[in-house]
Amino acid sequence: MPLTPDQQAEIDSLRSQPQDTLRTVAPGMEKHLYTAHPVLDHGFVRVVDYMGDDAAICQAARVSYGKGTKSVSNDEGLIRYLMRHWHSTPFEMCEVKLHVKLPVFVARQWIRHRTANVNEYSARYSILDREFYIPAPDALAAQSTTNNQGRGAALEGEEADRVLRILQDDAMRCYDNYEAMISDEGQQGLARELARMNLPANIYTQWYWKVDLHNLLHFLRLRADTHAQYEIRVYADAICKITADWVPAAYKAFEDYRMGGATLSARALDCVRRMIQGEEVTQESSGMSKGEWREFKEVIG
Amino acid sequence: MPLTPDQQAEIDSLRSQPQDTLRTVAPGMEKHLYTAHPVLDHGFVRVVDYMGDDAAICQAARVSYGKGTKSVSNDEGLIRYLMRHWHSTPFEMCEVKLHVKLPVFVARQWIRHRTANVNEYSARYSILDREFYIPAPDALAAQSTTNNQGRGAALEGEEADRVLRILQDDAMRCYDNYEAMISDEGQQGLARELARMNLPANIYTQWYWKVDLHNLLHFLRLRADTHAQYEIRVYADAICKITADWVPAAYKAFEDYRMGGATLSARALDCVRRMIQGEEVTQESSGMSKGEWREFKEVIG
Amino acid sequence: MPLTPDQQAEIDSLRSQPQDTLRTVAPGMEKHLYTAHPVLDHGFVRVVDYMGDDAAICQAARVSYGKGTKSVSNDEGLIRYLMRHWHSTPFEMCEVKLHVKLPVFVARQWIRHRTANVNEYSARYSILDREFYIPAPDALAAQSTTNNQGRGAALEGEEADRVLRILQDDAMRCYDNYEAMISDEGQQGLARELARMNLPANIYTQWYWKVDLHNLLHFLRLRADTHAQYEIRVYADAICKITADWVPAAYKAFEDYRMGGATLSARALDCVRRMIQGEEVTQESSGMSKGEWREFKEVIG
Amino acid sequence: MPLTPDQQAEIDSLRSQPQDTLRTVAPGMEKHLYTAHPVLDHGFVRVVDYMGDDAAICQAARVSYGKGTKSVSNDEGLIRYLMRHWHSTPFEMCEVKLHVKLPVFVARQWIRHRTANVNEYSARYSILDREFYIPAPDALAAQSTTNNQGRGAALEGEEADRVLRILQDDAMRCYDNYEAMISDEGQQGLARELARMNLPANIYTQWYWKVDLHNLLHFLRLRADTHAQYEIRVYADAICKITADWVPAAYKAFEDYRMGGATLSARALDCVRRMIQGEEVTQESSGMSKGEWREFKEVIG
User: Most CB atoms closer than 10 Å: which of C75, C102, C189, C227?
Assistant: First the structure.
């Protein structure tokens, strides 16, 4: 369970106090506010705040004085146009602030997205909780035999048991020792900023993460992708659902043009043109490498 | 007058429709929402949206589950601490979106602050209005005789009249010709993206500008400074007032530590120590250049 | 002529003094160093400095200890892989610094690319030169009748003459008045920071612009595109040629995957699949809007 | 020893091949190129490439055609002026690329500086080495009793031994298990991207880190500061020495205005003025909190 009763009470109290505002309100997002969506075994994603909605994208694109929308269908068309033509600045006019609890090794991938604001729980200042990510059986995957940075089928039987035991035992022992080292009972107690170095990368951390919609969608495109590591993908998937409720038109355009779309190279476009003319194109006649051809075939079906 | 009746009506309509939200509401900011604060002769600053308040800064700094505030006085102390120790990320957790109308030469300085989101009115797509900045008499200043990039006293008499006439005539003539060139009556009509090149830099443009509080304060420190050009300083001053109403504790800390504070060099600190000991320090014995010494004396009084 | 004899002498002197370095040297780029490539009537692009080459991209991708290259063909394959899979960080490991002279209205588009370093010639501090962009006859285009932010055919006859005369006369008059206002002969002289507001947007400015290769390629994709305004496209074209000499493998991959490639939406991919199966797809049966369909047909041929 | 003989041989080979360049060469930096400066027990900092020198800062500030320097003393004065007045863009015109080997918990602090380019060794793709940071006896510090995020005196006797043993044993056991889990002998072998989660935060990683001089100096100000954690400070110290050789004038100005300087609040400046007048100011009469007053006294001496 990711939240203690105290934390849940704090959240419930916030959810029970609607206030008046003159700002744009996105009804689909209000229902997500503060609610902790569970991810992995101890993680979550919570919306702490947001700014803007679909209409705000159009309002900015038009630099308008009022709400910036003539009609919903006009707005949808404009949003699709902006997305198709890579006009990123109107999407930057929406912003979201999330509270995320996530394993450290996921946090290290996540933080590589630089155009965002982050406040992480400080393990120099505070003591980390005894919470570690231990993969569910179907996420305990073998190294891929074809892709150096991917994973294959789930481990089975003996091996799966052995790995789980290792992960659990090492996590517990390291945390026991972490506690023992920082304890000031009968000893000086090691500085927290040093003791944390004994903790494995599956320990949970948490942060506030604030990002604009353009950069959020870029994050989602890379991290909700099937090639992303499963453990970050589930966070991206949870955020996708939230985003779909927040800015439905923008999210739909994103699904069509980014998630469901594909970038074809000049060579690939040439092949497509030839194939439409009825030519039988092979890897050899395509001018592509084997890897490119395989990816091309996946796209073209 | 910066707003047409239509624009004013659109704004009034927005201001008359409060909605329920579960988000943090900053009462001091709600009253500014949409209102156009006039700046210079045709410009303005309008708050279009905002995210967060003083408590949100503390909430992020504590990565807390709830509102993040124990008491207002605790929050003030924490905010002062964060400001004093250059902890910038909690301030990044507040965001504001402004609609600004401003002369092009001011826009060109403003845009140099890169960590912000901008949507500018497109003069490729649309036709600019006939609105030019013409300085008020007391802003019509002579070149400074001591500072290559500053200005001195206001021009007087004849010269002031001559300059005003030039600015007005050139603006009007250039705009007449802009209109004449793009007109499609009895001719093809020059492309707007080309015709705009005939317009002087005192023509007004407008944009949506979105920025986090940390970067906003950095902008204000540089642009509300007495060394900033007057024409951008008046915008910064207007935003200072808005910010003081939005995040009063953060703004107060900003005033104390940034606007009213000063960075002293190692040499300057050494002089201060000697002066406190009663030593009579001169420029010669200070180790500073003349320029540094003059600036030091201004700070030390 | 963009350079004075003094400026040319300074450049020649720099070009005549090769020095020893242990850094990576890109021979194709050395030949461009300092040379001013003319653009438009008074503008130019000059390479002031650069860091890295094709091998440096691979070296960073491999976080290697040595040069990071096993063989040129390996490097090319890796670079194509990185480009195809949107791995941007290795391309960020190359950097270039350009000195660019350009009209102000072009500078205003250019500066919207925020992830770059810029030092612009200060018209608060210095006096601008009397140099204005006046379009060549074939660049003096009419407003497009189909695209609100595009241009159509070149103006002809009378109208072309009239427009040219206007642009020239207004530029000269505004500049004469600029000089008259800042003159301190027999008067105080208006502050430069104010006087510049009288100058039209076709006056030339100049800046140092430093950017990493990833962001440079992004800039080139948008600004060397046929939809970009001609006056910025010619700068992008000049930089494309320089880049092709600097990092030939990266530039080739860029041409294939970005400039010559296209992003197809989920809908568009679906149509492609149906067309390859032999189906006759029309706009109506495509599920696309008219605009999307037209753009799709342009890509598919 | 941080480098294997093979790695050293690669580096030596690079150092033995000077090439001709027309670019600016910084002699003080050439001597650092590729050399691995040891930091902590297994870490290092190596300069992989650089762009610019002191003169390049001035050249950019002046947007000059040639080398941009009249004389060294002029340049020094200009650099001091730019530093004093927070003109950051000319310093952004120098760039450095480092190869750094560092413990993961240090990397996690470091990466918070977002305005930089990073390529980290991928533990999804590759197998990490068995190298862990184990503090030297004098760095094995107790938790500070006065500062929640600081450290006090070194641990002594028994406790120090115990902590060292824990850190070593847990590191070795976790690494043994990491190897056992990814092994494909007689089993499928856990995916590397998962197995890495078992490794404690004192394991070493490495990356290429590229940053401009302005942002580097900002990093150094925060991380070479006495309040920074020792383990990142030693990296910052090593980079300070390199920077002093690379851009001596800029580094000197940085030492005077940033590292050795201090920002005083409005209240603090008021106290300074009163103290110079001979007044005996106490915490009570200062208007400062106890924390502020203590920090103020440290600065004022």
Answer: C102
CB atoms inside a 10 Å sphere around CB A246: 25
Q: Please give the Cα distance from C256 to C261 (Å, whole number).
A: 6
Tell me, yes or no, whether C98 and C19 share the same domain.
yes
Integer-rounded Cα radius of gyration of chain A = 24
Does the distance separating the beta carbons of B10 and A66 come in below 8 Å? Answer: yes
Residues of chain B neighbouring C105 (CB-CB closer than 8 A): 196-197
Do A69 and A188 sit in the same domain of this protein? no
Please indicate whether, in this complex, the C-beta atoms of A155 and D112 are within 8 angstroms of each other.
no
Residue C221 vs residues A263, B295, C79, D99, D239: alpha-carbon distances, Å = 14, 47, 17, 30, 36
| Annotated catalytic residue, options C223, C267, C273, C294 | C223
Are C9 and C70 in a shared domain? yes
Could you give the ipTM of this predicted complex? Answer: 0.94
The answer to whether the CB of B238 falls within 8 A of the CB of B39 is yes
Q: Was A221 annotated as part of a binding site?
A: no
CB-CB: which of B262, B267, B273 is closest to D256? B267
Tokens of B223: 């642009």
CATH number, residue A233: 3.30.1360.170
Do B275 and B246 lie in one domain? The reply is: no
Q: What's the total number of domains in chain A?
A: 3
Question: How many DSSP H helices and E strands does chain C contain?
Answer: 13, 9
How many CA within 13 A on the CB side of residue C117?
29
Domain stop point among A163, A182, A201: A201
Q: What is the pLDDT along chain D (301 residues), one digit of tens a residue?
A: 468 888 888 888 878 889 999 999 999 999 999 999 999 999 999 999 999 999 999 999 999 877 655 666 789 999 999 999 999 999 999 999 999 999 999 999 999 999 999 999 999 989 999 999 999 999 999 998 887 778 999 999 999 999 999 999 999 999 999 999 999 999 999 999 999 999 999 999 999 999 999 999 999 999 999 999 999 999 999 999 999 999 999 999 999 999 999 999 999 999 999 999 999 999 999 999 999 999 999 999 8
Catalytic machinery residues of A: 223
Low-confidence ranges of chain A (pLDDT < 50): 1
My answer on whether A107 and A36 are in the same domain is yes
How distant, in Å, are the alpha carbons of A288, B233, C59, C60, C84 from that of C71?
A: 20, 57, 12, 15, 20
Q: Which domain holds residue C247?
A: 5-127+210-259
The DSSP call for residue D255 is I
Q: State both tokens at D112.
A: 């918070």
Same domain, C33 and C177: no
Contacts of residue A180, Cβ cutoff 8 Å, sequence gap at least 6: D166
Distance between A115 CA and the closest CA of chain B, angstroms: 9
Give the pair of three-digit tokens for residue D63: 């947007």
Pick from A162, A66, A166, A177: nearest CA to A130: A177
Tell me the C-alpha to C-alpha distance, in Å, between residue A51 and each of A11, B30, B112, B265, C246.
20, 14, 24, 41, 43
Contact criterion met (CB < 8 Å) for C14 and D66: yes
Domain C-terminal end among B227, B242, B259? B259
Q: Is D223 a catalytic residue?
A: yes
- For A263, the token pair is 């970038």
- The token pair at D264 is 């005083």
Q: Say if residue B181 is exposed, middle or buried (CB neighbours under 10 Å; 0-12, 13-18, 19+).
A: buried
Same domain, D181 and D107: no
- The annotation places the binding site of C for dUMP at 109-112, 120-124, 196, 223
Same domain? For A28 and A113 the reply is yes
Determine the distance in angstroms separating the CA of D270 from the nearest CA of chain A, rounded to an integer: 33
Pairwise CA distance, residues C189 & B141, whole Å: 9
Q: B257 and D266 in contact by Cβ < 8 A? A: yes
